[in-house]
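Take one record.
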Amino acid sequence: MKLIRPEVSPTRKKLTKDDIDQLIKLIDQPLQSRVCQGCTLKCSCSSSKTCLCGCSHKCKYAPMRLSVDKSLPIEHGIMPLVYEMTALNIFTLFWSCEGHNDSEGELIRQPEIWFYSELSLYARFLGAVTNALYAKGKITFYWHVSILTFSSPITAYRIHPDLIL
């Protein structure tokens, strides 16, 4: 069976190119401020409260500061991806899990992050980047980005590795 590819209007092609240009400008900028909003920790190089030298997913305070529920910090295993997605400043993350094993060590809950994105292009970009990293051997698993099907004014997505449970 052969399926017909839909025609893309010239207006949509231009809009997509404009979206891509905007996205490249967003991600091409160096970090302008600390990823954890409201962080006032003094850095080790100058005791500044705005210096970015210690700002990373390895900061011991980041798991708590990036969590909206202060009683549940971001789990260690998913923290690097949560941090990097937050640093891009194009997604609003609202749930994450590092994945969990049962008592025999079998995976029963895979790692995943749920997030909002105002433009579907951003979510597509995230999928393309993780696929490219997998193809280059930089990450262990192929990751999927999919739409979550619950009601919200902004489309919600889920990113998770391709693991067989």
In short: Strands lie at 92-97, 100-101, 107-109, 112-116, 143-147, 156-161. The first strand starts at residue 92 and ends at 97. The mean pLDDT is 84. The CA atoms of residues 85 and 91 lie 7 Å apart.
